[in-house]
Amino acid sequence: MDKFTKEVIGQNDIIESFKQFKTEYQKEQDISISDNFSISDSAVKKGSKTLKSIIKLDKNFDIFIHGNRH
Predict the structure, then answer these.
(1) What is the domain range of residue 23?
(2) 57 pLDDT more than 90
(3) What's the farthest any 2 CA atoms get from each other in the chain?
(4) Of the candidates 33, 43, 27, 36, which has an alpha carbon nearest to the alpha carbon of residue 4?
(5) Average pLDDT, the chain
(6) Strand partners for 61
(7) 13 to each of 1, 6, 8, 42, how far by Cα in Å?
(8) Bridge-partner residues for 63, per DSSP?
(9) Domain contains 51
(10) How far apart are CA 63 and CA 55, in angstroms?
(11) Is the pTM of this model over 0.90?
(12) CA distance 70 to 68
């Protein structure tokens, strides 16, 4: 979980907020979320193959991305 939060979230204040949310969510839902998890290689490969050229934010609001993935 620590490696995930550092690599994905990055900002310390947001990481702390995420950890507080996780703790509260576990209490509210009466579940336990493991701090150790594996990442599916096939999901990573699938996600890295696709690059969305249009991001739909709202009914009439789209962001068009031009150029290559870099």
Answers:
(1) 2-64
(2) no
(3) 46
(4) 36
(5) 81
(6) 58
(7) 16, 11, 13, 31
(8) 55
(9) yes
(10) 5
(11) no
(12) 6
